[in-house]
Amino acid sequence: MEIGMVFGLIGAVIAFGCSGAGSAVAMSWAGQAAAGVVKEDSRKFGQTLVLQAMGSTNGIYGLLLAFLVIQRSMTVTDANTGLWLLFSCVPMGVVGLVAAMVQGKALVSGIMLIGKKSGELSKALIYAAMIETYAIFALLISFIMYSNV
Questions:
Q1: pLDDT tens digits for range 39-97
Q2: What are the DSSP calls for 125-139, one per residue?
Q3: Which residues of 114-148 are buried (b: 16+ CB within 10 A; e: fewer)?
Q4: Fewer Cβ atoms within 10 A, N terminus or C terminus of the chain?
Q5: Domain spans of the chain?
Q6: Residue 69: phi, psi to the nearest 5?
Q7: CATH 1.20.120.610, domain 3-147, yes or no
Q8: Alpha-carbon distance values, 10 to 32, 80, 99, 109 (Å)
Q9: Cβ–Cβ under 8 Å, residues 61 and 19
Q10: Cα distance between residue 147 and residue 60, in whole Å
Q11: pLDDT at residue 1 greater than cutoff 90
């Protein structure tokens, strides 16, 4: 196995591992909050499920980048190209981890809002979507870096 390939694969692990872990935490927090709300009013299941699912997006972005990097890494033989692939994954990994976890907190708050007052799903989604923009920015930066390798 060439060292460039190893660097690229480490990058893929960073991209998906970090953003996926953050999404798992976010979905766990949201799921716990949603279970409490649904326990009180089972009709709110659909609204809380939408919010919990939103916590998965950072992991999906990291997975997308990891697929691209893994595919490209299989043909890399030199260390410089492998390092560039690794570095292209860092923005998505770092921002994906942090954004997912803070988004999880916003999702929990949104679920609590729905628990208190039905019909507030759109407001709860907007709060969480504000954080989502930074994950999208990170994916964009990572993709631009990846595209120039």
A1: 999 999 999 999 999 999 999 999 999 999 999 999 998 999 999 999 999 999 999 99
A2: HHHHHHHHHHHHHHH
A3: bbeeeeebeebbeebeebbebbeebbeebbebbee
A4: N
A5: 3-147
A6: -70, -40
A7: yes
A8: 32, 14, 21, 35
A9: yes
A10: 19
A11: no
